[in-house]
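User: I'll paste a sequence; please echo it back and then give the predicted structure.

Assistant: Echoing your sequence first, then the prediction.
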Amino acid sequence: MKRNRKDITAWIIIILFLVMLFFLYNQLKTDRYVDQGNEAPLPESLDPVVTEKTEKLVDQAAEKNIDVVITETVRSHEEQDALYEQGRSKKGSIVTYAEGGESYHNYGLAVDYALRNHNGKIIWNTSYDGNNNGESDWFEVADIAKELGFEWGGDWSNFKDYPHLQMDFGLSIDQLKRGLRPKHENSDQ
C-alpha cells in the first residue's frame, strides 16, 4: 500500500512538472510571436529582420566580389499560384511545390536570389565562379546566408530550390495561416 502511494506521488509530481513545462513553453511562444488572428492581412513587404539580413547578405557577398541580385521577395497568393502552375498547366519547368499560402514568400519571410555576371547579365548558374577563387559563387552566397540565419532551399532533400532563402522564426506555414507572426524587439508587431 505504501509503495502504491509513492508511485502515485511520483506520477503526480511528473504530471505537474510536465504541465509547468507546457505552460512555460507557451509563455515563451507568446513572447516570440504576435497573434493577428485568422483574418491577419498578408504582408506587402519583407519582415524587417529578413530585410536587414538580406541587405547584409548582399553587402557581404559584394566584399567577396560577388554581385547578388534579389529576384523575388513577397508574393501574393495569386502570384504563388501562377508560379505553381508553371510546369503543370503552363509551359516551363516546375520551380515550386508550394501553392498560394503555402510559401514563406507569402508571409514576407523569404527571398530568392541570382547572380549578376561581369557583363551585367543576371544568371542562375550554380557553378559560376565570377570572383575566380575556385569556388561556386552561388554556394558562397548560400554559406553567407546560412551564417546570417537563413535556411537555404539548396539544402532541402526532396526538392532543391537553389535560389530560395527563408527565415521561419520557428513558425510553420499552418501557424502563419492562423495569423501568428514573428515578434521582434523594437517593433510594434
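The chain is about 40% helix and 15% strand. The mean pLDDT is 89.
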